Amino acid sequence: MEKEFQDACNEFWFICTNVSKGLVREEVTYAKTMLEIHVRPEFMKMIEWYIGTRTDFSVSAGKGGKFMNKYLTAEEYTKILTTYGDYNINNIWNSLFVMTDLFSGYSEWVANKLNFAYNRKEQINVISYLREQYQTPVNERLTSK
Question: What is the pLDDT of residues 17-70, one digit of tens each?
């Protein structure tokens, strides 16, 4: 399971950079595809593992996480719901940042509970890159396409 954990973390962090590239270039459909088709499954997997470590893997979050609200705090569940943004670029950025924040906490928790190695440097570097991309002025974004 540790390899699956490592692979999920790597995929999550790597594809988050693709989401930001799409947002910087105002390629909304690409950014949404990367977020929903590639990043979200790894995000959901980590939530399931987080729930699993808290329940000795005795419950299921259900298909699409339909039961996760039973095993998370109301605050956690509400934050997860905010990751389901619309097509507005600022809202997609917000969804991405909430996802990375939650994923960071959950993955560190899971790694700690299961005694798995966790590449915190990758996490820090990607979050730093995302913040840098987000803060790039729009006129600079458009000229760097």
Answer: 999 999 999 999 999 999 999 999 999 999 999 999 999 999 999 999 999 999
Q: Which two tokens stand for residue 93?
A: 């950025």
Contact by Cβ (8 Å): 34, 42: no
> What distance in Å separates the CA atoms of residue 53 and residue 29, rounded to the nearest whole number?
35
What is the second-level CATH architecture of the domain 2-143? Up-down Bundle (1.20)
N-to-C CA span, the chain:
40
Cα–Cα distance list, 74 to 58, 66, 70, 71, 101 (Å): 21, 14, 9, 9, 16
pTM of the model: 0.91
Tokens of residue 108, six digits: 């560190």
